[in-house]
Amino acid sequence: MGRRERKKAATRQALADAALRLFLEHGYDSVGVREIADAADVSVTTLFKHFPDGKEALVFDQDADREAALVAAVRERPAGRSVPQALHALLQDERSRRIRTDPRFPDFLHLIDATPALREYARRMWLRHEGALAAAIAADAGLPGPDAGCRALAHFALEAVSLVHGDRDPEAALARIFDLLDHGWSGTGAA
Q1: How far apart are CA 189 and CA 191, in angstroms?
Q2: Do 40 and 48 contact (CB within 8 A), yes or no?
Q3: Are 106 and 99 in contact (CB under 8 A)?
Q4: How many CB atoms lie within 10 A of CB 144?
Q5: Same domain for 25 and 106?
Q6: CA distance linking residue 76 with residue 94, whole number of Å
Q7: Three-state SS for 145?
Q8: Angle at the Cα of 183 (from 98 to 89), degrees rounded to 5?
Q9: Which structural domain range is residue 32 located in?
Q10: What is the pLDDT of residues 86-145, one digit of tens each?
């Protein structure tokens, strides 16, 4: 990465860090983009160059690699591991890693749960990857393209992230959802 790219990445990270700090301190709705730009020592124009989708995008600054990770989870999964198992492992590992490495992660989750605009943005953000994930599932199954089953599996796997927000035990809830996706309703013991 060249000097210019490093500087852009540093500015983007400074903006995301300032936004999260301010949102956690004052609440999402109480913070304006000008305050975030000032805290990161950039102009509002610069903020929107890095985050053209608006204020919500500042909270979810690490979305770029998500689609690649989802597709890789399907394509590169170990032999004997089903697609739902691989996706569950990816999401569970990502959550566990964030909890271990980012002391603000529980506050971040609470911020999303407490802010309807952020909950909806997070949901839309995840579902943006549905087409690529469905295509990877279809390719893995040897299908010429994603059929309704591939699209449904991709959709519900991605929707699982939204469904566990605010749950008393998100890990158990995620496991229950992926058990259902892997084995169907009759295979979960709930029938």
Answers
A1: 6
A2: no
A3: yes
A4: 7
A5: no
A6: 16
A7: coil
A8: 20
A9: 3-59
A10: 999 999 998 888 888 888 888 988 898 889 999 888 888 888 899 999 999 999 999 999
